[in-house]
Amino acid sequence: QVQLVESGGGVVQPGRSLRLSCAASGFTVSSHGMHWVRQAPGKGLEWVGIISFDGSNKYYADSVRGRFTISRDTSKNTLYLQMNSLRPEDTAVYYCARERPGGWSDFDYWGQGTLVTVSS
Amino acid sequence: QSALTQPASVSGSPGQSITISCTGTSSDVGGYNYVSWYQHHPGKAPKLMIYEVTNRPSGVPDRFSGSKSGNTASLTISGLQAEDEADYYCNSYTSNNTLYVFGTGTKVTVL
Fold it and tell me: Which residues on neighbouring strands pair with residue B37, listed in sequence order?
């Protein structure tokens, strides 16, 4: 069955970097657009970015563009989120999500999330 | 890009119907039939409930239905059940720089 498992979260100082991973099983990431979505403590969901099914296109939210980079390793069937120049407002639970087959505007499977805390 | 506007909370008794609104602009909700709804129990993975305004994924009870009028989309839960108590978020494609925008979220309470 489809499963997404995020890892790599933790406590990091402002200005530092962190890389999150999302291990996929039950499907191949090279067949689906893959997204990152985050939720700050006590706040709602915020879309972070997407990598297209073929890896050729990447789009980001204004709040992270230029600091965050999405990539994938198809041999490991894993999605990544490289986060640089982290700010306290990046503190959130980060989810990876799969684009629904046949669609491109919604997310049919999500992971349980990994918590990133940016604090000195 | 501002978040889509949802009521902070909606409540109802078991068996009743409730409706959650999601208001955007002509650049998102009103301009495209790409509105989806997610159920989120805290600490768990969000779950897709409705896609492309009105469509239910396999396995989602038909008590859940979606609609749209102008710049406002709606999620209706009929025959409310205790397990429906959760946070609900709408999402829309947007023509702005940020491709997707979520709603502010609605906490549904079953009385």
Answer: B50, B90
Chain A contact for B1 (CB, 8 A cutoff): yes
* CA B49 to mean position of chain CA atoms: 8
pLDDT score of B67: 97
B34 and A106 within 8 Å at the Cβ level: the answer is yes
Interface probe for A, chosen from B99, B104, B107 (most Cβ of A below 10 Å), is B99
pLDDT (tens digit, 9 = 90+) per residue, A77-113? 999 999 999 999 999 999 999 999 888 789 999 999 9
Q: Which residue of B has its CA nearest to A64?
A: B98
> What string of DSSP letters covers B15-71?
T--EEEEEE--TTTTTT-S-EEEEEE-TTS--EEEEBTTTBPPTTS-TTEEEEEETT
What own/partner pairs with CB < 8 Å and gap ≥ 24 does B96-99 have? B96/B1, B96/B27, B96/B28, B97/A62, B97/A65, B97/B1, B98/A47, B98/A61, B98/A62, B98/B1, B99/A47, B99/A50, B99/A59
Q: Kindly determine whether residue B48 and residue A113, on different chains, have CB atoms separated by under 8 Å.
A: no
Rounded CA separation B90/B103 (Å): 5
